[in-house]
TrEMBL record:
InterPro entries: Aldose_1/G6P_1-epimerase, G6P_1-epimerase, Gal_mutarotase_sf_dom, GH-type_carb-bd. One of its GO terms (cellular component) is cytoplasm. Its EC number is 5.1.3.15. It comes from Triticum aestivum (Wheat). This is glucose-6-phosphate 1-epimerase.
Length: 334
């Protein structure tokens, strides 16, 4: 077991759980448990750099992981927050959604300093570098550093820093997504707000481009869209639970909204037939325009998730107020 400095201050050892604890998870895979005050926690598997749990102060799970998820390499874990890198989709010889989500990451014991110091001890730094096998299918050298942190108030924060370490002087390009599965009461009770009037690519129609016409996204059938030029905040409103997830993001201009519905759910071996009712994916992403890095350049993509006890009709959180300060002005949208 290890922790980030627990018990260093004062003569008495702390009486509560360690803020960072290394444990064994499903099938003996290594994982890290992060804990904050009260009962707030998160779990990160080194396999995939994959967040599989995020619990609030009541101990309630906020992320969805399928009961049929296969915690066995090389199969990616179904649910939580898979990391899609170096591609989102299934083009070319790379596997669908890239290889980062089914590689064993290492604990980064000496990460370069972050621009902003963290106010919590409940965080872990991970690092992924390409293997010889990776270089055969994607011939680019990189360092991918990932910090997963729990804020004192329970927010879950993921920061990705990807650096081009090619020695041959060549740039590389990639697409990316935090493929976040949220746990919800029922898909029929969900509204996603903040993407109104935006253009999107419909993955169910060969990425044909449309403009969102609704005042919110609601779910009545399979939905798989890439919204473009999205604001830095998006709200996911769960009427039945009277809870709103707030997605904040940086460096990630796109947002994927996905629910497989019944037919596709039944076709997935690692997903329960009816589990589509209890999950929705809203993913901070960079897909339409690939990110290109020259050797030595670094890209940063940030995701911050909050869960607010409210709903669109409670008056406690007006979704318009949640997102109005970050909506892109019409004249700046290309």
């Amino acid at each position: 077991m290890s922790s980030s400095g627990a018990g260093e201050e004062g003569a008495a050892a702390p009486q509560g759980p360690l803020p960072v604890e290394h444990r064994k998870g499903a099938n003996g895979l290594d994982k890290v448990v992060l804990r904050e005050a009260r009962r707030i926690s998160a779990e990160v598997y080194l396999y995939g750099g994959h967040v599989t749990s995020w619990k609030d102060e009541h101990g309630e799970e906020l992320l969805f992981v399928s009961n049929k998820a296969i915690f066995k390499p090389p199969k990616a874990i179904r649910g939580g927050i898979p990391i899609c890198f170096p591609q989102f989709s299934n083009f070319g010889q790379l596997e669908a959604h890239g290889f980062a989500r089914n590689k064993i990451w290492s604990v980064d014991t000496d990460p370069p300093p972050f621009p902003v110091p963290i106010s919590s001890r409940a965080y872990i730094d991970l690092i992924l570098k390409p293997t010889d096998e990776d270089l055969k299918i994607w011939p680019h050298s990189f360092e991918y550093r990932l910090r997963v942190a729990l804020g004192p108030g329970g927010d879950l924060m993921l920061t990705s820093r990807i650096r081009n370490t090619n020695a041959d002087g060549k740039p590389f390009s990639f697409t990316f997504a935090y493929h976040t599965y949220f746990s919800i009461s029922d898909i029929s009770e969900i509204r996603v707000e903040g993407l109104e009037t935006l253009d999107y690519l419909d993955n169910l129609q060969d990425r044909a481009r449309f403009t969102e016409q609704g005042d919110a996204i609601v779910f009545e059938s399979e939905l798989d869209r890439i919204y473009l030029g999205t604001p830095s905040k998006i709200a996911i409103i769960d009427h039945e639970k009277k809870r709103t997830f707030v997605v904040r993001k940086g460096g990630l201009p796109d947002a994927v909204v996905w629910n497989p519905w019944d037919k596709k759910a039944k076709a997935m071996a690692d997903f329960g037939d009816d589990e589509y009712k209890r999950m929705v994916c809203v993913e901070a992403a960079a897909i339409e325009k690939a990110i290109t890095l020259k050797p030595g350049e670094e890209w940063t993509g940030k995701l911050e998730l909050s869960a607010v006890p409210s709903s669109y009709y409670s008056g406690q959180l007006d979704p318009d107020r949640v997102i109005q300060d970050s909506v892109v002005p019409e004249d700046s949208v290309s």
